[in-house]
What we know:
Blueprint: E1 3-7, E2 10-13, E3 18-25, E4 33-39, E5 46-51, E6 58-60, E7 68-73, E8 78-83, E9 92-103, E10 106-113, E11 117-122
Parallel strand pairs: 2-11
Antiparallel strand pairs: 1-3, 3-8, 4-5, 4-9, 5-6, 7-8, 9-10, 9-11
Amino acid sequence: DVQLQASGGGLVQSGGSLRLSCATSGFTFGDVDMGWMRQVPGKVSALVSCINKGGDTVYYADSVKGRFTTSRDNAKGTLYLNMNSLKPEDTAEYYCVSTFDVSASGCSLGNFEGQGTLVTVSS
């Protein structure tokens, strides 16, 4: 079975940092483009970032550009999201997804979606 499990969320003050991880299994991670989504309760999910299978092409939503960094370790089957200068509006559940057609302009969502981790940023 395909599994994606995000971790690393928590409560942090505005201006703080967190590092999220997404551990995967059940598929060949290095063959799949990946990404991060976030969802505020009651609102539509939003794409945060995507990264191609080689890790050399990354897209960021304007709202996080310059503050968040996405990376991957294909040997470990793990996706990362380093979040700096966090703002209260970053408060959401973050989860990892598979993607495709990653470019600097965006990507398309794939078929895999994982369990999320809650990030809460206090003002």
